[in-house]
Design goal:
ten-stranded mixed β-sheet; about 25% strand; about 25% helix; 8 helices; alpha/beta; 14 strands
Length: about 300
């Protein structure tokens, strides 16, 4: 983990990730079991949801209980795909920004999710601290992370086919900006960032091609749905979902306050087609319905 001021960002700009990884690949099982987990963990209703690492909006419709959903991703092209997928629903806002420097005022959201995103974070604690800062007290945060201590990695390690140890606390970077984390380490980050962990679900237990080809999808999903309930006891699946509450008291935003300048932290008025920070003069364009708060890497 870097601990640097400006950690590197995994940028999906121009990627066809949604099409190649989800739509055209055999991942109906993974998508279905994640839907089950979200259904179990999401509140029945809410006001303002922040979807971090929203990508092309695969999960957005699953947050229908919220009055409004803010889709945040570093990639504008991913957000453009999300716009097409969701059409003009009227309750979505699209924001291109860096999770390490969120462009929202303190205490704004009563809900947030980060699904298949933390594994791209070189500084997970910084990212989680940023999320906590924009949440209301007792706001619900649902986090998914890639678990290094899963059964496959354990057996590979014991068989001598894998060098890294699945039982140690440190993250393993198996490809650039792709990390697996130890459950105990993630729990410690959540606590340090100001979250109280309520529940854990283990997900995607049967993520094996042989099983997906031989067992009917509905049966496999039902099996995983049952196995998810063991999450508070042990975490041995490749994916783990957590539900936490934001603790402490973040300053409540003024009635009209929503955005802040990611460069200096001053509140910024919502004045499309361009938002201007009166404190430092930074300008942030709004093009085709997407707010762009991305900064240059050396900022």
């Amino acid at each position: 983990m870097t601990g640097t001021k400006n950690p590197p960002v995994c940028d999906y700009e121009g990627s066809d990730y949604q099409t190649t990884f989800w739509d055209q690949a055999d991942r109906a099982y993974e998508d279905a079991v994640e839907q089950v987990a979200l259904r179990r963990l999401l509140p029945s209703s809410g006001q303002l949801m922040l979807e971090l690492g929203a990508g092309a909006g695969r999960n957005t419709k699953r947050y229908a209980g919220y009055d409004k959903v803010v889709l945040l991703d570093y990639s504008k092209t991913q957000l453009q795909q999300a716009q097409k997928r969701l059409s003009d629903s009227g309750n979505t806002i699209f924001v291109a920004a860096d999770i390490y420097r969120l462009p929202f005022v303190s205490g704004l959201f009563d809900g947030a999710t980060m699904i298949r995103t933390l594994h791209h974070m070189a500084d997970p604690l910084l990212a989680l601290s940023q999320v906590h800062g924009v949440m209301r007290e007792k706001g619900v945060f649902i986090l998914e992370y890639a678990n290094k201590r899963n059964l496959k990695s354990i057996f590979r390690y014991w068989a001598g086919k894998q060098k890294w140890n699945p039982f140690t606390a440190e993250a393993v970077e198996f490809a650039r900006l792709n990390f697996d984390f130890h459950p105990k380490t993630v729990r410690s980050w959540l606590k340090t960032a100001g979250f109280y962990l309520e529940r854990q679900l283990t997900v995607s237990h049967y993520r094996m091609n042989l099983l997906k080809k031989t067992i009917p999808l509905k049966v496999l999903v039902a099996m995983d749905s049952f196995a998810q309930l063991s999450g508070n006891l042990w975490q041995l699946s490749p994916s783990v979902f957590t539900r936490s509450n934001a603790t402490g008291t973040n300053p409540q935003p003024h009635a009209e306050a929503f955005y802040k300048c990611p460069r200096c932290g001053n509140p910024v008025e919502d004045t499309p087609p361009q938002l201007i920070c009166r404190q430092c003069g930074s300008q942030y364009p709004v093009e085709d319905g997407i707010y762009d708060f991305r900064l240059e890497e050396d900022d």
